[in-house]
Amino acid sequence: MTRILVIGGGIAGTATALALHKAGLEVTVHEAHPGTAEDIGAFLTLASNGMRALAQLDASDVVTSRGFPLRTMRVLDGQGAEMAHVPLGEADDTLLRYRCLRRGELHAALQAEAVRRGIRLTHGARLVSVENGTDDVSARFADGSVATGDLLIGADGLNSAVRRSVAPGVEPVYAGQSVFYGYTRTAPVAEDTGHITMVRGSAAAFGYAVSPDGEVYWFARVGGEAVPAEELAHPTPSRWRDHLVALLGEDATPAAGIVAASTDDLMATHATEIPPGTPWRSGRTLLIGDAAHAASPATGQGASMALEDAVVLAKALRDTPDLDSALSLYEACRRPRVEHNITASGEISRGTRPPSRAAGGPPQRPGDDTLIARLDWHRELPTDADADTGDVGQAG
Q1: Which of 52, 225, 323, 330 has its CA at a distance of 20 to 30 angstroms from the CA of residue 97?
Q2: For 79-136, what is each residue's pLDDT tens digit?
Q3: Cα–Cα distance between 310 and 41 in angstroms, integer?
Q4: pLDDT at 145 over 60
Q5: CA 303 – CA 310 distance, rounded (Å)
Q6: Is 9 in contact with 29 (CB distance < 8 Å)?
Q7: 359-389 per-position pLDDT tens digit
């Protein structure tokens, strides 16, 4: 097997292409958007496990040239009192520090690196259908073109077109919160960069971080009814801002002031998830990243889990003699870990996570104790990966 088609040029797809290329496989990426600037507004954090995966792809530099590092996390209660101030992940290692950056910046950086390495990346390729054959798999696109390979990887995100052929009828499920993102340079906060502050308010979960040049990145997760689809399609940022200021103003924290100082560049989305147990494979087609295991953003692990997927999949294909065995090994390595994240993140979003667990740091995940070995490019994957059932090891 040498020819692999990747559908989706976002974080999961482009990182997977980098990993497959490093493993010596021929890979092409087909991205539906016409350029690299989609989803430029919202930001994300890459945790230490995601940064470790990037290091295995020799892609640390292209990412650390964007955004800014986060070394610690502060937690405030609804009265603004500090409940905790703890290190984030592997903060002592410059390559593995958490990193905060705009999602579109990460897309563009990974795509540029893929092109630099000679990986073919086609924009404007909107998938219409997937046809699995005995010896190959074909992707048909809206412009009438067809691409054929030995394996097709669906890395096309939450609303995956590839998923329709692998798991017909499976759709994202609302996880109980609407999520808002914004920025401001005039917020009434005077804080150093290098940490993220989480506010456990009475009406919403809020977080913010200050960039080295003084820009405040913030998000708010609000429970209850989802923002109507019509509002998402035709945004009303000023109304969202007023609504958030009223909610957050019930507490004595900086949150309301930060939102009030923000411009109309507010963004909103739904916290959604793919139900655990969703099939990932059909014939020569495999789902990865959010297409397979999207979780609500409460644990902040979506992008990092996708980067882990990329490394583990490439190693499974590199080290295993046939396709079925490789995909079985990949799924055994990944499913317990990512579905634990779906469950834990969904519990936080819905407010059903037991307080004793929610009060601590990042939820422990199956596979944390073996993660370093699994991501190490120079080590083969273990064949007993289905033994991942424990909640032990390092936080990501």
Answers
A1: 330
A2: 999 999 999 999 899 999 999 999 999 999 999 999 999 999 999 999 999 999 999 9
A3: 24
A4: yes
A5: 11
A6: yes
A7: 445 556 788 889 999 999 999 998 765 545 4
CB contact at 8 A, 375 and 52: yes
pLDDT at 321 over 60: yes
User: Alpha carbon of 47 to those of 52, 272, 298, 365, 370: distances in Å?
Assistant: 9, 20, 13, 14, 17
Query: What strands, in cross-sheet order, belong to the sheet with 151-154?
Result: 120-123, 26-31, 3-7, 151-154, 285-287, 281-282
What distance in Å separates the CA atoms of residue 298 and residue 60, rounded to the nearest whole number? 25
d(CA 381, CA 98) in angstroms, rounded, equals 26
β-pair partners for 194: none
Report which of 299, 302, 304, 273 is spatially closest to residue 358, judged by C-alpha positions. 299
Please, what's the b/e burial string for 211-238 (b: 16 or more CB within 10 A of its CB; e: otherwise)?
beeeebbbbbbbeeebbeeeeeeeebbe
Q: Which position has the higher pLDDT, 64 or 384? A: 64
Of the pLDDT bands very low, low, confident and very high (cuts 50, 70, 90), residue 358 is very low
Structure tokens at 347: 């519990």
- Give the angle subtended at the CA of 112 by the CAs of 288 and 268, to the nearest 5°: 60
Tokens of 27: 């890979």
d(Cα 128, Cα 164) in Å, to the nearest integer? 10
Determine contact, residues 376/56, Cβ cutoff 8 Å.
yes
Rounded to 5 degrees, φ, ψ at 62 are -70, -20
Cα separation, 392 vs 131, in Å, equals 41
| Lowest-pLDDT choice from 82-96, 186-200, 204-218, 244-258 | 186-200
293, 243, 330, 312: which is closest to 49 by C-alpha? Answer: 312
Give the dihedral sign, CA 324/329/330/331. Answer: positive
Per DSSP, 87 falls in state: E
Residue with tokens 């999520």: 179
Contact 151, 139 (CB under 8 A): no
12-31: buried (b, 16+ CB within 10 Å) or exposed (e) per residue?
bbbbbbbbbbbbebebbbbb
CB 91 within 8 A of CB 71: yes
The per-residue pLDDT for 384 is 67
Please report, as a single letter, which amino acid is at residue 385.
Answer: A
